[in-house]
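Thread: "does anyone have the structure for this chain?"

Original post by V.I.:
We have the sequence but no experimental structure in hand. Need at least a predicted one for the grant figures.
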Amino acid sequence: HGSDGRHSITRSDTRRSTDGGSPQGGSSRSIQPAAPSQQHVRDLFAQYDTNGDGTISLDELTPIMKNITKMNDADIQKMFRSMDKSGDGSLDIDEFIKWVFHGSSKQDAVAKAALIPSDASKLQLSFYNFCGPTSVEMEGRFFTKLCKDCKLVGKTFSAVEADIIFNKVVVPGQRRISFEQFEKALVLVAEKSGTDLEGLRETVATSGGPAFAGTQMENVRLHDDKNTYTGTHGSDGRHSITRSDTRRSTDGGSPQGGSSRSIQPAAPSQQHVRDLF
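Reply from O.Q.:
Generated one for you, tokens below.
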């Protein structure tokens, strides 16, 4: 990557304060994507112009952004308007190139990390995806979730230590960290856990974003184990209530007469349904 100019690498001294505090002089190794060539941008434009008409519409851009970012429709529309300087509802190649090289808003940063892919921008994109759909800075709880989702939390590194590191890099009085502060935090995580920094960065970059899992209900024996059901619940699993005449034959056989009565819930009134609505 260093030979083709795609990624510039800035290394700073990793000396730390003697009390184990925050890094001195930045103590981070920051890898930022270098500006892409115009030809590379033109190639990407052609890729995103899915119908080949020479422009990129909002309909073409929206599924691309939703597939690789956590941006919602409103954010994508806002980003598109900032790119569409002519206001005609589509992006031509000149507008796209100008946006790539001159767009500077926070939403632009997210979009560029997604639309101008590189090894370094993958890390940025994962960071932005963990920030949530409405922010480009990361809260402490999302930093801890990132550490858990990326399997950084384990025997040598705890969620409590992740919280401590977040508080070391965040600006006093602030609740969120920028991407640059996040990179410094990764350095501290690597040092604390004894993990190779490059491997750690790659793990975070390839995660793509947070993992979500539905809440699993605990097993309830009297509900989930049908062997514990009684009456009609045990026989067919239904919840109708059947009452039978309790008279039985003298030898303990079946009930006499068969005077059974089934109680089913009555249909609710329309007014009750409207009240529930």
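V.I.: this helps a lot. DSSP finds 13 helices and eight strands in the chain.
O.Q.: and The longest helix spans residues 179-193.
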